[in-house]
Amino acid sequence: MSKETIKKDSTQYETFTQEEYMIMKDDLLRPMRKIRLGGKIWIAFLVLVCCAGVYAYYIQETKSKYVTVSLRDITFWGVYISNFVFFVALSLVGVLMSAVLKLTNFEWYRPLSRIAEIIAVAAIMLAGVSIVAAMGRPDRLHYLIIHGRIQSPIVWDIIVIMTYLATSMVLLYIPLIPSLSTCKNHLTNLPKWQLKMYKFLSFGWEGTPEGVM
Amino acid sequence: MSEHTENSHKNEENNPSDATEAGRRKFLKFGVLAAGLSVVGGGLQKVFSDESKSTLTEEKVKVLTAEGKVVEVNKNAIAHPADNNLSHLTERDGIPNRKFIMVIDLARCANARKCVEGCQKMHNLLPPIEYMKVRKMQDTPLTSPYWFPTACYHCDNPPCTKVCPVGATFKRSDGIVGIDSDRCIGCKFCMAACPYSARTFNFGRPEQVEFNESHPKCDTQENCCVTNGGAVGTVSKCDFCPSHVAEGRLPTCITACPNGTIFFGDELEDVVTNGEETFRLKKLLKDRSAYREMEELGTKPRVYFLPPVKRLFPFEDATKAYNTEE
What we know:
The complex is a heterodimer. Chain A is mainly alpha-helical. Helix content of chain A is about 75%, strand content about 0%. Chain B is of the alpha+beta class. Chain B folds into 2 domains: about 1-55, no CATH class; about 100-305, Alpha-Beta Plaits (2-Layer Sandwich). In chain B, strand 10 and strand 11 form a beta hairpin. The interface of A and B includes residues 66, 72, 135, 136 and 152 of A.
């Protein structure tokens, strides 16, 4: 990239005023500084839902493989695999959105890409969990590596999940770097290890045009 | 050869219960080397044993040849297939020079369900799990219904083995499609691939687990199955009773049937039997216009059906039809 284009680019980026930047910064940092009562209740509810899921899985693994979701010899995959397909498609849409917006060079996509990517990462993780929950012997998961047959569609499922997860993580992390840098600079009353973490994760990003290279 | 033995010993020390399995895997790993060495070793052994045999005995026995002549031969020259020591064969190795085949005569089935019960006893299964199933079949609204005993067809072009991610299900050289339940990860993809719904999943129902614990396998010679089909969280199915056929005995469903519906035999020997009657396989299939289920799929099943013509028993609707839910 030549110096002129960088200069042109940098002027392009400065589309918001100082006031707008302060609003954005406040939006970013507010939930990290203080969680209000409504938020706390919501988090507690979600944790409860997660615990219910873990307990249901515990019942399934200890009592019988089919008690929780009524699996039988004919409906042997049931809701697990429909969930798997749903979550894989969801994460695909996340990747697709950021890819399309990136290829079309739309600048307004930047905040949206984070939403798309965090959905993609969460969905692909849940897809992997669905597969493992549907397996009869999750303790033998490593057999897929030891005895894996590349001809089998299941092995390609695993490869797809791993690739999606890695790609989504990278695509999530790259647009997060400026925000992590903001956290590092503006969240002062944090424990030392969190500040160190932000410093490490933000890669020393300063937002200067030289840094882009 | 010695290297291979050493490896086996190492594995034995690490995990005595899994020694044969580990040894087998090692064998597969060093497959080419070990196979080459054992060919040489086996060849040498054969030369020595042949020499010693010819010098040992001169005893002659009379035998009847295929042409009907009585000839005298050296006693050592007679092979006893039943005496063959097959203990060196693992679950995955087929019995040499065998191609097992099954013929089911639909004209003889009266839904006595003795094959189902015998199979369940043999494999420690509790209802409703059945490897062998008897279904009610009606081809058209105008034709009479008939009973249709069915199990795994041990296809020559099996869709199930192709989709297995870990190679836990496999086609043996003797035609049997087997399952290694120590390797099965329970993904159930083979169940989705099988067009005949021959496979069942061990969901681990509490009563089944309890029953397996109270009825250990191989307690009697009659109730003995080499394949460990009951492992919770794995897929299992009809296995053509490999421990029985290795000893030259018929699978349990055939001996249990009171009407001699099911025939079992060897395609290479061109013969099938139900324990009482024996037929030439090709002639039987030709004369009775045998067919295989869903021929158009190209799975090439090893189980043939003889159409229900000149039935021995009238179809009784009063006989309870099981497995209607599935």
